[in-house]
Amino acid sequence: PEPLRALVEPVLADHGFELVDAEFGSGRVRLVIDTVSGDGRVPIDRCAEVSRELESCLEAEAIVKPPYTLEVSSPGLDRVLGREKDFAAACGREVKLETRRPLDGRRRFRGELMAFEAGQALVRVDGKPFEIPFPEISKAQQVYHFKPADLAKPAGARGDKRRRAKSHAAAGAAAAEPEEAR
Fold this sequence. Notes:
Blueprint: H1 2-14, E1 17-25, E2 28-35, H2 44-61, E3 69-73, H3 84-89, E4 94-103, E5 106-117, E6 120-125, E7 128-133, E8 137-142, H4 148-151, H5 157-176
Parallel strand pairs: 2-3
Antiparallel strand pairs: 1-2, 4-5, 4-8, 5-6, 6-7
Helix pairs in contact: 1-2
């Protein structure tokens, strides 16, 4: 709703963030925020800071009736695509989106976002291109594919642990020896 947007956006701008997406209703306000550059690097402590300030503002303006839950988060790995610039940045990646009404007999699309120009998303689904007007998109997000490197331990982490264990064991053994034996 516009009153919520009018309250939230200036607070976010003061913190160097932009509103990507908002869900409002059923005692819940969920905001997805991002940096102005759109890199998704919003530390959790900054989300908490923004949340505290917004909670005070929401209570002062009585836009949301208590009790409610306020959630402020970053776009995440499966980043929400809520602005035209988010779509432009996601070109070449896999996306899934839902439209407000059926287009070509369907509302859900998952495929490669081939282009985003003049308010039109061009998505290739199973080899077939679909042009989807931005105003018709109700929900969209980028699909993140985990790679083995995402799940790997940092280089040297395991070896460092073993070296520390050996040095602690050696120090313990040395301490256990009688002094004259050393």
